[in-house]
Amino acid sequence: MEKLRAPTLSAHGAVMPVIGYGTMELPQRPAELVAAAIASGYRHIDTARKYGTEQFVGEGMRASKIARSELFVTTKVTEENAREADFMLSVETSLRTLGLDYVDLLLVHWPQPKVPFKETLGALAKAKRQGMTRHIGVSNFTLAMLDEAVGVCPEPLVTNQIEYHAYLPQDRMLAALKRHGMILTAYCPVARGKLLADPVVGEIARAHGKTPAQVCLRWLVQQPGVAAAPRALEEGHIVENLDIFDFTLSDGEMRRLSALRKQQIRIADPPERAPKWDVEAVL
After folding, report:
1. Which domains are delineated in the chain?
2. How many C-beta atoms lie closer than 10 Å to residue 14's C-beta?
3. 162, 38, 61, 63: which is closest to 111 by C-alpha?
4. Are 229 and 44 in contact, with CB atoms under 8 Å apart?
5. Which residues form the catalytic set?
6. Could you read off the pLDDT of 27-44 as tens digits, one per residue?
7. Measured between alpha carbons, how far is 25 from 186 in angstroms, rounded to an integer?
8. What 8-state DSSP symbol labels residue 99?
9. What is the pLDDT of residues 179-188, one digit of tens each?
10. 3-state secondary structure 238-265
11. How far apart are alpha carbons 108 and 73 in whole angstroms?
């Protein structure tokens, strides 16, 4: 029985639930976890070719018996497939693996400096125009890359999915996305668990009768134009991550959590594909 439902954000015609279920590195029973997430009220499911979970996302969707039109499905094309022909083949493979006619959002997973953005973003737009995806966006793009992508892409970009949590400031990216009318979708929203032991997070959580994870997610989605796609490896945490819309953090609590940025901890920084990240000045 559905218990919860996330509000949505809109950008360039896309209506995205602000909390999605992230499916990277799911343990055993991944299809059951996806079905459980949908049963709990999730309507946004985030996957990628690189995750190896597209098949299980499709199985979980079908097991849920929820109408396809009610679900917002995101997948991504990895940087190895940045050339147009490879890109289109990757999207076709994703759709076949998911068992879907289209996805709601297709992202360039990581930037590929060896291929002109015009070619990769052109292929992304082509996938949209051919009906393979309803909306498009990017992931792990820096400020300069984002501006270039917006400039060369023939179709509007909806989001930049990047690492964002209270230990990693993204003020300049938030401002750039606002300027482009785009959404920031946060991955690693609890810094792979590092934030859960922070005493400031714990104190605020106790004050609201919530868990540290719920406070971290609430801090994100309470910011204008921010969505999040947390992982959850068991059903209890799946429900917990969505149950964040019955309380509000005060301005003071938001500032206290934002002040944790001085840690400047980045979790996802794979040397083989990560760009040179923008650095935020932290006072």
Report:
1. 8-263 (3.20.20.100)
2. 21
3. 162
4. yes
5. 51
6. 878 999 999 999 999 999
7. 17
8. T
9. 999 999 999 9
10. HHHHHCCCCCCCCHHHHHHHHHHHHHCC
11. 15
